[in-house]
## 1
Amino acid sequence: MDMYNTAVRPSLVEGNKSYRQVTSDIAGPAERTPARWWYIAMTVATLALLFGLWAMYVTVVEGLGTWGLNNSVGWGWDIINFVWWIGIGHAGTAFTIFLIVFRAKWTASISRAAEAMTVFAVMNAGLFPALHLGRIWLIFYIFPYPNTRGPLWVNFNSPLFWDVFAILTYLLLSVTLWYFGMVPDLATLRDRATSKIRKNIYGFFSMGWVGSVGNWVRYEALAKILGGLAAPLVVSVHTIVAIDFAVSVIPGWHTTILPPYFFVGAIFSGFAMVLTIMILIRKTFALTDFITKSHLDSICRVLLFGSMVLGLAYVTELFVAWYSGSEYEFFTFFKSRATGNYSAAFWIMIVCNAIIPQLLWSKKIRGSLGAMLVISIIINVGMWFERFVILISSLAQDYLPSSWVGYSPTIVDIGIYAGTFGIFACGMLMFIRFIPMIAISEVKGLTNQEKVNREDDNK
Amino acid sequence: MQNPSELLRTARKAILLSCALLFLSINVSSNENMSALYQETEEAGQVLGPPTTDDIKRGERLFRGLISPGPDAASCASCHNTGLIDSFNWNPSAHEIALAYRDRSHDDFYQVVMDPVSAKMTEVHDSYRLSEEEIFQIKAWMDEFAEHGMESRPVITSLLLFILLFVIFLGAIADLVIFKKIPYKLIHLVVILVAGLFMVKNIAHEAIALGRSQFYEPDQPIKFSHRVHALENQTDCLYCHSIAEYSHSAGIPSTSQCMNCHVIVREGTYSGRFEINKLVEAYENDIPVRWIRVHNLPDHAFFSHAQHTGSAGLDCSECHGEVETMDRVKQVSDLSMGWCLDCHRSTEVDVLDNEFYSLYMQLREDVTSGRIDYATARDTGGTDCMKCHY
Amino acid sequence: MKKKYWKSLEELNGRQQQDYVGDHLYVNKNEMSGLIEEKSLNTSSSRRDFLKLCGFSIATSALIAGCERPVQKAIPYLFKPEEITPGKANYYASTFFDGDDYGSILVKVRDGRPIKIEGNDLCPLSDGSASARIQASVLELYDSARFRHPMEDGSQVSWEYADKRVIDGLRSAAESGGKTVLLTGTVISPSTKSIINKFLQKQPGFQWVQYDPLSFSAVLEANRICFNSRVVPSYRFDNAQLIVGFSADFLGTWLMPATFAGQYAGGRRVPAEDPQMSRHIQFESSMSITGAAADERIQVKPSQVKGVLRYLYDRLRGSMPVSIPGFDATLDRIAAELDENRGRSLLVCGINDIDIQVLVNGINYLLGNYGPVIDFMSRIGLRSGDDAAMERLIAEMKNGEVSALLIHNVNPVFDHPDGEGFGQGMERVGVKISLAPSKDETSALCDFVCPDNHYLESWGDAIPVTWQYSLQQPAIRPLGDTRQMQDSMLKWLGEEVDYYTYLRNYWQVSVFGLPEAGKEFDDRWNDCLQKGVFITSIPEGPQPSFNETHLAEIPSGSTVPAGEGFFEMEITQSIAAGSGRHANNPWLQELPDPVSKLSWDNFLAVSPADAESLSLATGDIVRIDGDIRIAVLVQPGQAPGTVSAAMGYGRTIAGKVAEGVGVNVMPLAGFAGGCTDYRVNISTPERTGEKHKMALSQTHHSMEGRAIVRETTLGEYRGNRSAGNEMRQKILDHMYTLYEEVKFDGLHWAMAIDLNACTGCSACVIACQAENNIPVIGKEEVYRRRIMHWMRIDRYYSGESDNPTVHFMPVMCQHCDNAPCENVCPVSATNHSDEGINQMAYVRCIGTKYCINNCPYKVRRFNWFGYARSDKYNSYMNDETGRMVLNPDVTVRERGIVEKCSFCIQRIQEAKIEAKNEGRVLSDEELLPACAQTCPSKAIIFGNIADKNSRIYKAFQDKRNYHLLEELHTLPSVGYLTRIRNKQS
Amino acid sequence: MKQKDLIAVFDNDRDLVKAIGTLKENNIPVKDVWTPFPVHDVLKMLGRESRLPYFSVAAGVGAVIVTFAFLYYTAVIDYPIRYGGKPYFAFPSFVVIIFLLTILLTFISTVIVFQVRTGLFPGKEAEVPVTGTTDDKFVISVGSKEGLADEIITEAQVILSANGAVEITEQER
């Protein structure tokens, strides 16, 4: 029991709260009419969403020609944003796995929001592979279902096919984890609900949860199984995304380091996004007792670790490009990325991802909300540029110089990206509006633990 | 976007038409066509005046047999259908006759009804005892009928059913989650399941059938019967579809080719003169006959009749079915890609005798050594995409 | 497939009429083609839309009345013409001559529509090939800018009325005592010439002026001076061991480029057993594909050419030449080389200057090249226009001496240097009659337009060289109410016969020399129609003697004008645009210039050195003399101090495609010494600060040290057959594979490209476009690097940027046996066939573009928009009549799918079916993809590599053979033969 | 024997655990317990264990076999197509899909079995003896199928109130 209260780790929930207090503190925002800032934020998010919807409409109705792509660069902002979003999505699942599988209790009060972030981010990510199809109306061709065409199945060798299944599985699994994790809390809200409609809706989704022993026993087992399945899955998803690039023949893509490098990058960017959101939630909802400085500190340490791994990966890539003796690889890494047309993006990537996060060594910075917020945002900018560098520099300048091109996005590209921010923001705002943003039952378990510990100490 | 608007247009047309019909049945004398008709008949020197509403009404009754056209005589409508029908009718429909005689005089019409030339018609029309006035009334009705077209049957679209079920489906879910008016959850469950399954089934079914037209059997502008030509008169397929052996297309014979025989044959066994007259008319007026294509391969599939009737040695009936027994050609096979491939996977290819395959040394050896029983089209690339798609 | 040479359509005229129902000016497509098998023309669009929509909103539309499908009508012929089999193509031999280029051709007619042009392999001049412009000419048949009926001052009139007015006009012109002038391009048709002669006899004051926008006046004049024979002799590039060109782009634009390219490539092909090839030195200021092909390219300013030639002449003659600073050593060396190759060398010069041409004649004469290499006994009929006569005509018109002017096949208002003057002159002409087939700047100023037919609708004949007669026959009835020029002339002469009868009579009497029309005539006539050409014996005899008087008067030394602040400008021709008469052809407009890689524009080529000193960059708009604003393209290889720009652009009245494309630079050209002078001095280009979008399809010019185009020299090749290609063995030694390589039984299609023979002329690009229904996407889309051509000509520079070596490499889908693209397609839309073809099923493609990314050769193309249907794109496909050129055997691709070279699979399948049905082996020779078929230099070898006796198998065994990016182990089915340059080392 | 259960409400888990401990010592059957969060001691004391993991393993093994069979049938037997020079049976490519589909099928079937076994599904009514078990109430129900003897009920009442039950009610069945 002592492991929860060591000298280095301050208590996970502060303020010595009763169970009822915990419930009302956390459930409160979902029951109150939201504040004005919520409406403002929602309006902004909806505008972004509308911009995105317009861009998607143009894409589908007029064609992919409205994007900045060309004969050589077949993937641009679409896939950059896809990889970026799916990377962000990884953090939520990672938190859940830490919580369930590794029993890292400190993640309890963060995992719910992180999971919500995962769900919306993966939804956004999934949008791009669909939108980037030339004929989105035939998207069902990608599924191997029996048909009258021979039957003609699909190409199981294609990483894109793997990707579809990886994302689909991942989306389903993370939604399931999120939803089932929410069930006891929805029951709480149901029982606290005053209006009939609220009661019915929460009642419907809480699946008749009562918190009986039979419930809890199987629930815990299910959580462990899902967490256990999610652990390899979360590793595999970004691995497969990386394989999309790694199995190709394009210089700068065709490297075996890509899967681990992508996975770490994903966790890195996801944690950064969690940090951003947690700082905002903590500030706006005064949940300082649940999302403590120690939580943020822990995330920062993970970021520091990720940053160093990424830095190592960048250096390794450069080394291998030189050491392999492949002129194409050498060109891509040294003449295109480090010094050539894409050097600006390359150095932004290096500085944002490998250098600036080193500031987190400083305890002072790990204690400053503002500094952490800025760094977390910088990291995600850097991660976006990482994907930009990988995608564009490799495609725009590959084997035959005759097909070397430039690339620039169009307003439609930008619109869709903005739209995904709209979706994400709308989703998160709806989430904090209607769903307890911290797992109440988990936190109660912790407060209980805290009390036991305190009493033990007092003896 | 095209389809909904088309649907809308069709619906609007239907509404307008039915309104017009209603209006006309009330007040026919105001119809301009009627006055034109009046002039025409008058010019023809008829004693009979312009048709009145009563004339038209009586004409219809006569045609439909509500007033007997003669002792033991079948009503006109029993042979000449007034509505759209699924089955094949050798006799011209009421509408076709109406169109054909719209611009012709009362005398012509009288002549053809009461004193027909063709054998079959004579036999049936023999028992008619119709006065000149009655014929006039029938024509009066038919002239009006020509304007309106065939009666369409009420169409129950599965769309309405689908929408209805969808609404019920949504309602059940809403009640289950929010309103909870119905206490028994079993009801919700059954409704949701049944409606959901139906919708899924319907969508899947329609999606598979999309672009397919197995059993398509349209009415042709001329009632050309393959049974009469190919079975009863023993005409070889290749006599008319002469290019099937050396072109992609089997070819629809030109009108002039039809006239090779029909220059002499002017009366059909079952159809009398009416159908053959259409052909002759088209020929004489240089108007090509607009046949309706029955077998439509999608544009992205390239098919060569020359290849299949040539080196593959297929018989026409293997794909087209027993066309010689069809009065109206029907698409027997579904012409799906799976259907093509089934044949390509199983049909034997004569790799040993056809010199073309002399380059396929491995395959020939496999066959001669008995490693495989015989070579199929698949073994010579018969399942390649580019066999058909380019 | 074996081509069928069809008898004429002559007997069809009567019967076919009935197929064309109605009095449409443009024939209703349904009636016209007997659409029993109409693949991609009409029904496809509605049907595809329909399927797409159903797929898109499947839940709803599937249910709407059971998703009612559109009823498809099949309309058979009323009378089926015997020659037309629906679904099967016929080939008719005919003749292309547009005033500039000649080609004996085969017209592919499918369902009554001409859809493609191919070279006639029975004609020694064509040898089965056709240039880009000839290939593209079929599209102009369906051009909506064509006149559809006769017109008076822009409004429609009937032929009877027009004829009457024209005859009246001619009569009153004759009565007034003024001149009647017939202005035409070069006429090579003997029967037409005889009609014109009749006019000459009948019409008082009649004068016939031939005018060539691409003038050969100086050559003609020089030959008159030197040999007393005002003709163009024939050149035999295949007999020349040493070719020295002076600004003569004989592989691209000069005289008969397709023929010369074939001859040239013959001398450049290096047999492995006995490595021999001709040597080619090119002097030029602007970079042409001929300069790119040369073993040695020497930059000269246009003004230096005369001095250089004089130097060579003097040196060869043994007299002391006047030094040309910077050139002496080179010229001495070249003179020595020429001296070694007496009787088997060839000097050609493209400069329209009499003195220069006299010098060229003098050198060729000194070297004894007349006879073996240049032949006055067989004369080329092309380019007989007289610049001086044209100059006189303008003066006469301005003086009001011309009462009637008939204009046929020329557009001097646009392409004459003094076009403005010509236009002013026209105002003073009594009656002006244009016979132009489609609208142009000159016909717009005419009183009457009596539109000529397209050549595919016309009868005709031609004598391109002394020993070859060639017949032209219609492949389709006139689409509009037009009449061919000869018929109009006969009508105006008051002759009763139509031109067809006239032509037959003419051939009977003057060509065959038969006293009466009978069976013998019919047989010979029909034979000629089937073959397209009638070849008489090649005349032999002594070459004319040389008259040195004029030459002696030409001063020695350089004539470089002194002074600063000006540039020497040369007006050139581009491969696509030529004189500009085909400007409204979108295929040609979109064809990238092989050297600059620019489509949809002309440009001012500036050398890199000058660009730096003037701080100009590609895309800058500059102002030059005559207030012409033109975009700059920095062109490596352009001689410093010179600029150049192509003519044929800047049409103002031509149709929606051409108008507003490029700038007309012809007003800058001058008139000197009796010839149009395409060299002018202009003041320094002045920057305007504006930028122009340059639709370049290649922007990186260096190979970055990669072994993409492999090259060696003849000397090294003699010592080592794998010279330049040594790395191939190394790569093969290093190849390891996880999976065993697939063996193909029976058929395995492959292609080899001889880089030594390829000149970059781009005929293959247009042939491919015509064969495979490749969309035209317009300037903006090309600018965005989305050009759709399945076959592209990559061009790289190496060496110093001022005078680089240029490398051409045609790249199309490599049909890799280990194709990276196949692996990554999730829906199996692209995979490998049993015949080694990388197949692409368009219907299955959902457009992930992953294959595009993963293709190391970047040969896959994506339909970014619905190019075939949207009005936004300048494509022939969205034009009602333009669509008729589409090949029904190839699917028109819709938006959102990937396409690429298929090795012309439709041709392969057709040939296979025919061979199968006939139970015979598919031979190597009978099957060629469109690109290989048309290649003037026969650089493309295609065949079945599984057949050890095939040509392609042998080509792949050649030590020169390599595969592009072989080290990736993609195992391409396309090989390249290392380029060999005959360099002196 | 009375057919009734004893419902006791606690306001913290320590009391609950103690009470259950005492009840168990006295062999008084505990029918069910409701808590706002999983109290592991209670679960342990009541000896309840889930067999869900065993099912998951079985489902996983099944999914591997089914996926492999499906892949082999479609790619090798039914319509073999050659991609990029690979053999029809390109096992390395299959591995990824087998992995993914195994996870997908396993987790879906596990969730379904979970719902079936717990009887939890969307729309189910919550059946709680006392409201507040999802907030801060810890509830024990004492009883058995056959019903309990009066003395046992009394004894249980004593134990429960001694251990800090805030509310004890009897509930007829």
## 2
Amino acid sequence: MTFLQATCLVVVALLGTLVVFTRDPLRQAAVTGIFGLGLAALFLAVQAPDVALSQIAIGAIVVPVLVLLAMAKIREHDE
Amino acid sequence: MSLLAYLVAVWLFVVGIYGVVTSRHLVHLVMCLSVAQASTYVLLLGIGYRKGGQAPIFGDIPTSTPVVDPVVQALALTDVVVGATVSALLLALAVQAHKRFGSVDPDELNALRG
Amino acid sequence: MRSFVALAALGVLGAVLVVAVTGLEPFGHYPGPYGDVLAKVVPDERHTGQLVAATVFDYRAFDTLGEEMILFAAVCGCAALLRVLRSEHAGEGAPGRPVPSFAARAMAAALVGPVTVLGVYVIVHGHLTPGGGFSGGVVVAGALLLAYAGGQGLRLRRVGSITLLEGTEALGAAGFLALALAGLIAAGTLLKNFLALGTSGMLLSAGTIPVGNVAVGLEVAGAVALVFAEFLEQALLEDPE
Amino acid sequence: MALAGLAVVVPLVTAALLAGTTSLHARRVADVVALTAAAATAGLCLALVIRSSDHAIVAWLGGWRPRGGVALGIDLYAEPLSAGLAGFAALLTVAGLLVAWHQVDTAGHLFHALVLTFLAGMVGFCLSGDLFTAFVFFELMSVSAYALAGFRVEERAPVEGSLSFAVTNSIGSLMLLVGIALIYGRTGALNLAQIGAALGSHSPDALVAVAFALVTCGFFVKAAIVPFHFWMADAYAVAPTSICLLFAGAMSELGLYGVARVYWTAFAGPLGPHAEALRDVLLVLGLATALLGGVMCVAQRHLKRLAAFATVAHMGILLCGIALLSHAALAGVAVFVVGDGLVKASLFVSVGALEHRRGSVDEAALYGRGRELKALGTVFAIAGLALAALPPFGPFLGRAMIEDAATKQGLGWIAPILVVASALVGGGVLRVVRTVFLGRGAVPPRHPACREAVAEETDLERGRTPWPTVVTGTTLLVLGLAWGLVPGLVDAATHAAARFTDHAGYAASVLQGAAASAPAPAGEAPTAAAWLYGLASGVLAIAFALLRTMPEGPLRALHSGRIGDYVAWTAVGAAAIASVFALTLA
């Protein structure tokens, strides 16, 4: 295992934990985006560029944006 | 060290489900689920990795080069898309839940008791 | 109480999983044989060096077909779950929403071209380089949304744009299915390659793999844009109360 | 050869066409097109059953045949049992679409498109010879099902039910996927036959035992085996009637089909020597599910939840049949799935009809209000007796075959427990006949979930039941009753089950393309003891129906409706099953 891979793995584990324990959904959406990027970096480090690109597109962009759109609806209700 | 990738996968799986159990917000719950989902990507790609292997694309490298397993990458690609679709559906349900009864706390959704 | 039960259960489950993964080959020692056999046969049989694309669009194309249909079903599901009920029509058009400034709209319109080119480039080179229909499709969806923001502002109207996206999405899904059926008609087996394999490394090579990439790209672009549009519409909808 | 692929592709193409034209709002055209596609799928599956009656059909998609024992591509594997189950799902889809003929809101053609992707997922899952492909189509089925369960978004309960359905089942899918990844890490294979060959008959270690446990748990979530069953009543009580019958008649059963398929193709080699330990674990789970489902069924006042818990109880009986790990018991399971599926589907249609006529599914609110609905009451009564496994109907035959197989293995003591479970289910349904249709005996208390006004599901006035519903409900019931009287059924089912459980024959036909010489054991008609058990459960069901007070205890409090609780139970179940398997099988 290279140093880069080990670093990415540890970072991913920490970010994943952070996602779970960030209780405010808006901040959590941001952390999820970073977590998605961390995963993408890990995938590049284990020679999986195809998965990394999809992960950036879907895990780091599409899902967080959907979360923000859903939150826009939910928060508007609370006002 | 040789187990680190697998241990990280197990950790993400467990912590993601713990997040789902303790979540008090449906949107938060969806993202915890995606953390648990991520464990499967890490596990799959970890299994298919080969020390010193190149990405499985013979473009500029000769076809005799050792490469990592392309199959797990195909599976992970599918998995990423499946995970996102489930997230989208759950978010749509969360939006409707909020519209119908003004709450996104999973513990308040208990019209169906017993 | 519940979190303690869950902690205990997940602790046990995690411990059992840790015991199980110690039975795997150590990290970095992929045991094969599936991936190794593919690495040996793909360059000759499929005239492409992109092993992942060959796996996704040929050897395991049926998985991709199923996955496309999951995406398709999820989009239908989101559209159904977020459908605008008759009682809610009052909010359509959402007056009082700020319309983006001319500068922002011009900027968005200017970006549409380059982003589309990038997305299409990623899709059509999917059998040569990393990328392909999945990531390229998301980029194209981004371009569609930019075009939307540039052209109309955020005054979303159901008729027109969404119907168009629904058409695109269904076309992509139908495209991949048509590719599968074409293999049956032209080569006698579902999903079998029926196009010339060409020269490895050329844009028009690898038989049906690039065609599959294009179909997936269309489907993903339509699906992502459609789901965004559905959520956006909900966010702009006025409440029935 | 192309038949198997077409059975999956036909509903998918139709779904894409319907979704692409949803803005045309051609409702009747969509109804007819979707019905035609579902009927065509059923026909294709029937053709597969007939053509695979001598030897299995193995279709290698893309033409990638295995080389040197390594599967390069994906195969669809059709034999009478797998194709038959796919065909049964297609048949129920036809019934569901007929019931939906008068459903008021279908969101353009989206409802039809989702029903067809749901069907394609079930067919693909049944026919898949590859573990990951099975997962993909399992997900296709699930994703469509989440949307269909929550389809009536204008009400509160469907949104809640669909949420707990989607969250718990997504976690089930995750466990399944982790199990698949572990198996791939060991064998480097995804094809079921190749996995079986790679695992060989090596003694299983913790990895193999845990991988099998995770795959099993993933399927158990869908099959609603205790303690993974909580979501089921919530989801089934809220889905449109047309979807309920598909869920209860086909989707749950596919979870157990997955366990059986994976065990006999991939794991029978390594786990065979530990079959007794495995049998004991599965039997405990099956009996617990059967009894809990039965008790909860009798305790319900909400009629759709009552029918849902009937499904839970019957999943327990089916799991007992699979747990015996013998072809004779599996034949009984196959017979039970069809007979029970038809009767239960008819019950759900009847509940939907009652809801339409009287505007409620609350037993208390309906007390005595069904006196004029004599035909509907008769259907309820016959369905109740059939679900109690009264001879000679379809469910009886299946349960009798399971009981006889158990007695042969020296496990005759499980038969009385199955009798009680069936009787509880039948008793619950028959009590509804007593209160709603006869207006006799004690008035049940109201159920809190029933207070909410039920929105009208159909576009007709309450004066009469829509004719497609009447025709479908009656036909399903008649078919379910007649199923037990089909001549030669026991032999055919035993033969099919013997082939399904033929571990070596499966591997040979997939990897070497050999036309495996199928073993053809003769089936045995139900023994006198089984007939007595059948009669006893009928009588006991009537006795349960006459009981005044129903248990109202801590069991119901466990079914809290909270997603967090359900997921915690899922974790508990997975932890327990995985550690027991790791300790006893490895």
